[in-house]
Amino acid sequence: MTAMTPENFSQRNTSATPDGNDSLVNLPQYLITMSITVYSLVSVLGVLGNGVVIWVTGFRMKKSANTVWYLHLAVADFIFAAFLSLSVTSLALDFHWPFGKFMCKLDTTIISLNLFVSVYILVVISVDRCVSVVWPVWAQNHRNVRNAFYVSLCVWVVALIVCIPPFFSMDTKKGSKNKTYCIVFFQKATPSVIHTISMIHFLLGFAVPFTVIVSCYAVIIHRLRRNRTLASQSSRPFKVIASVIVTFFLCWAPYHIIQLVVFMVPNALFNYAILNGIFVATNLVTLQSCLNPLLYVFLRQDFKDEIRKSILNVLESAFQEEETRSPSDMKSVNTRQSREKSGLITEV
């Protein structure tokens, strides 16, 4: 999946504005400032939030197929959020790319990898829930941590294979004022070939996966309406999964729509409007990487319980270390800790 970003749009379409290759610097400053702000917040919150999900699902919770799905989804979003700092730096430098050719290729590949891993893990989650509802006996015999790990590994391998083309198509190019841009090169491809590539990416990365997801949920809803007991048992995980899917759709739909129309723009003015739209679309895309952890925390009671218990364990360890450093106050600290621990256990 070739990443459509503001940094490389003007190089694909040199008529983006009347100023050609320097169109980016003539964009409204509030759009650039907004992107820097959003990217910075998402980078910090995405790393912290997904880091918590990785910690809880990978080391604190009992292993299950669900925790494996959420763990791999969080890993993809964590890597994506970590690499956003490069985009923040480039935006702050008026789109100058100071990190070299290899990092230009790697950064775009990570964006593409996050897209495909996220959407395919969501497809796997939906199919997994559908199978659990329609064929519960088969799911009970085959739905385990090992098989979930193998499926997740296959998702990563497929996503990496799909992301090979962006790695080789991205490159750096010298621009005006001694600036270096990280762009995608399509000089040897005709507009029809480029549009065909965009259509294939749209189908493989968005349309087909979401058709599968919607179909799975249609089957699940039909089954739940016929079995109220099953519906009551499955309501909580469905809320989490449905919220993640809706969030992903709202964040990625504008991106894919622009991917389809960007090569069919009729004139420079419309081209410039598309360039502005790319900023909004990419901001929505980046938000998705830090929204998933929030959905886990606020909608799943087991996540909240594990996080609270883990924080209490950290605080207890800190008190114990403080106690070791202050032997003279050991007796009073022990008394206070015993009281606090009793109260905490009662709350939990």
UniProtKB/TrEMBL annotation:
It comes from the Eukaryota. The chain crosses the membrane at residues 30-56, 68-88, 108-127, 148-168, 199-220, 240-258, 278-299. The keyword Membrane applies. Residues 49-296 form the G-protein coupled receptors family 1 profile domain. GO terms for molecular function: complement receptor activity; G protein-coupled receptor activity. InterPro entries: Formyl_rcpt-rel, GPCR_Rhodpsn, GPCR_Rhodpsn_7TM. Residues 323-348 are annotated as: Disordered. The keyword Signal does not apply. Pfam families: 7tm_1. Belongs to the chemokine-like receptor (CMKLR) family. Belongs to the G-protein coupled receptor 1 family. PANTHER family: C3A ANAPHYLATOXIN CHEMOTACTIC RECEPTOR-LIKE-RELATED, CHEMOTACTIC RECEPTOR. This is G-protein coupled receptors family 1 profile domain-containing protein. It comes from Oreochromis aureus (Israeli tilapia).
